[in-house]
Amino acid sequence: MTGPTHGKFSADDLAAIEEIKQLKAAYAYCVDNKDWKRWASLFTTDARVDESESGVARDPFTGERVPVPGFSLEYLDQLFAFDWPLVGREAIQSFGETIAVNNRTVHHLFVPEIERTSSTSAKAIWPMEDYAWWPEGSPVRFMHGMGYYHETYERLDDQRWYIKTIDFARSWIEWR
Length: 176
Known about the structure:
Blueprint: H1 11-32, H2 36-41, E1 43-53, H3 73-79, E2 86-87, H4 89-99, E3 104-109, E4 113-118, E5 121-133, E6 142-155, E7 161-175
């Protein structure tokens, strides 16, 4: 792709953008339906995922961590105390199986900015909103968050797009 992302797109650009949208839709579906094996297959074998900043929101203007009434920042950090970044499909699948075993989730993805950076690479920013519910007796019962996925993609030899990297952070989050 040449020029800014809001310029004219070639047919190849549009096809790549649509394929990446379908890939991200599959990502959200797999998370919400706990299909961890398929979810991991959406990534390159050497993918890197960093969600270390996703348990506590950061003010988009100041970058400061936003306190959550009723929860200490230290407690919320514990909820996401994994060995970040996750690297490789096996680590990514294990994370999904560990973090979301007892909760129900709904992920909403909004209009992304996607740029094909070469014939086999692309990058995107996805605005998102998610909800999670845990069963009675859990230390937390509900989470509602909003933020952004910053991702890169790679088209492999099978001509399919895969997620190469994810850096994810929330700019707003509610815990109960």
